[in-house]
Amino acid sequence: MSASPHNYRNLLEAVNSLRSRGYDYDFHFEEACLHCSKIGESFTPDDLKITEYYRFEGMSDPEDNVVVYAIESNNGHKGVIIDAYGAYSDEHKSAFLSQIKVED
Q1: What is the 3-state secondary structure (H, E, C) of 47-95?
Q2: Residue 3 forms part of a structural domain
Q3: What angle do CA 26, 99, 75 make, to 5 degrees?
Q4: Domain contains 5
Q5: Number of domains composing the chain
Q6: Is 65 exposed, middle or buried (0-12, 13-18, 19+ CB in 10 A)?
Q7: Closest Cα partner for 83 from 99, 75, 20?
Q8: What is the distance in angstroms between the CA of the first residue and the CA of the last residue of the chain?
Q9: Could you tell me if residue 1 is inside a domain?
Q10: How confident is the model over 8-23, as pLDDT tens digits?
Q11: What angle do CA 77, 9, 27 make, to 5 degrees?
């Protein structure tokens, strides 16, 4: 699968589309892993794959520079995580995400 099979105008459109396609969970980076509060599980990079991702650049505000990742766990949990890039990025979160395999 292509990393970006759809074209979205904004972050909200991308997230809504992913939700409609079964990416129901919200992943949060904490303590060197991705955590999903809804199911009470934590995941390492080896437990996950990135199935799609979309980058959005704010036209006038650098705080709007984000990437939304569609992620699936080895046990079938599908969700999203949003990461800023540029001046507002979390280097630990970005480093963690870079370790997750991107599905072809």
Answers
A1: HEEEEEEEEECCCCCHHHCEEEEEEEECCCCEEEEEEECHHHCCHHHHH
A2: no
A3: 50
A4: no
A5: 1
A6: middle
A7: 99
A8: 5
A9: no
A10: 988 999 999 999 999 9
A11: 25
